[in-house]
User: Which sequence fits this backbone?
């Protein structure tokens, strides 16, 4: 059951400052609410803060629940609660997904980069990214990993590299396997004075490059494994034709056939067989601002751009922000709610968020940015049902389009994944 009591206003209404409170959800886990006011060059600003603080080395474990087609955060939390025998305590959105407003193009919502769920590998990164990994003991590992590694096809060992890695010196090798996925499909941001901002696929980034020295393996998940579903000897393969597209040198063509299994994948020295769950998130932010700038630069891949050619980073504008924090002794699900169309309530840049977290958590070690804005949600599992906090809003665009664009204000925007904490054996 979802608690439908009014906990926030529609997206186009002003924030009402939360009354500061601290609620003990369980031994070693607390939920804090508070208003936070700060000043910058634009004047006085307000955000509402929601934070679930989980003591490290306690009895709680972490998991990640995915939806390749996207689902509401609270719906994914309900699924995870069933999976954990009604022992889920809290959850929040994580990961990022390609979302297009072209409702007549399939698929419009698809998980990209790392997707490891219940020890089953569906996808891995084509770009250098921060990864959330959960091991078999339910412990969370947050680390930056470069998009290269090894894999086996029919037990034969190969080296692979992500097509969007910044390890460019490796991309000239004739021996390596190049990996592509839906993340290669760019999104254009179009600003229209009538319909507002729209996100459309970039027609210039649709296919793998033509290369007569290579062939493309179209990879899909069938019969419980990642398998070669088809081989395209002409290259120029559409990025959505498979979960992954692997470009291999011609000399290996006779060694591989449809049905062959992809297995034993490593990423930057990390063997994914050692983990149960995995997803990619934003850059690692630390108390050191210079190091943070470097982290953002090395993990940023421009996948959106304005039609006038000016790129927009996801870190340098104000928005509702969500992040996963690690302090010396806690893991924290953190959300700063905002209203991006109202002066003084537009939210935070990453630099703003960094300053606020250092004030609230002096023993901060690191945090990672996860999908903010309309996707940002925190969910609590209470005896009365599921409570939802975050960017409550309602949007309808365009009026005569499919139901996909009617976002329920309480449910929010569909997301590709959530991270959750649960108490085993509860």
Assistant:
């Amino acid at each position: 059951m979802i608690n439908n009591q009014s906990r926030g206003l529609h997206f186009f209404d002003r924030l009402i400052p939360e009354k500061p409170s601290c609620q003990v959800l369980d031994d070693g886990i607390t939920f804090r609410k508070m208003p936070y006011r700060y000043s910058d060059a634009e004047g006085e600003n307000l955000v509402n803060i929601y934070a679930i603080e989980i003591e490290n080395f306690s009895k709680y474990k972490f998991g990640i629940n995915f939806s390749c087609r996207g689902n509401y955060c609270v719906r994914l939390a309900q699924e995870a609660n069933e999976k954990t025998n009604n022992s889920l305590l809290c959850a929040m959105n994580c990961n990022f997904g390609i979302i297009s407003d072209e409702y007549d193009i399939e698929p419009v919502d698809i998980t990209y980069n790392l997707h490891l769920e219940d020890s089953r590998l569906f996808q891995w990164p084509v770009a250098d990214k921060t990864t959330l990994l959960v091991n078999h003991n339910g412990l969370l590992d947050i680390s930056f990993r470069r998009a290269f590694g090894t894999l086996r096809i029919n037990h034969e060992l190969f080296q692979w590299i992500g097509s969007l890695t910044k390890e460019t010196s490796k991309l000239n090798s004739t021996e390596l396997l190049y990996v592509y996925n839906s993340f290669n499909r760019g999104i254009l941001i179009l600003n229209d004075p009538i319909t507002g901002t729209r996100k459309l696929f970039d027609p210039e980034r649709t296919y793998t490059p033509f290369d007569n020295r290579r062939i493309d393996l179209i990879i899909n998940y069938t019969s419980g494994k990642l398998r070669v579903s088809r081989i395209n000897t002409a290259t120029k393969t559409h990025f959505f034709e498979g979960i992954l597209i692997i470009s291999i040198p011609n000399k290996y063509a006779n060694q591989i056939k449809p049905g062959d299994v992809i297995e034993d994948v490593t990423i930057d020295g990390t063997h994914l067989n050692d983990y149960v769950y995995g997803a990619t998130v934003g850059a690692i932010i630390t108390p050191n601002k210079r190091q943070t700038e470097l982290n953002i630069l090395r993990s940023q891949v421009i996948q959106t751009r304005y039609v006038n050619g000016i790129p927009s980073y996801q870190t340098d504008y104000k928005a509702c922000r969500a992040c996963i924090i690690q302090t010396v002794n806690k893991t924290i699900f953190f959300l700063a709610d905002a209203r991006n169309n109202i002066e003084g309530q537009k939210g935070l840049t990453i630099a703003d968020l960094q300053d606020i977290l250092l004030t609230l958590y002096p023993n901060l070690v690191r945090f990672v940015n996860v999908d903010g804005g309309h996707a940002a949600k925190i969910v609590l599992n209470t005896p009365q049902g599921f409570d939802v906090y975050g960017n409550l809003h309602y949007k309808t665009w365009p009026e005569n389009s499919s139901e996909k664009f009617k976002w329920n204000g309480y449910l929010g925007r569909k997301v590709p994944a959530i991270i959750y904490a649960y108490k085993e054996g509860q």
Residues 1-12, 99-109, 302-314, 393-407 have pLDDT under 50 and may be disordered. Residues 98-281 form one domain.
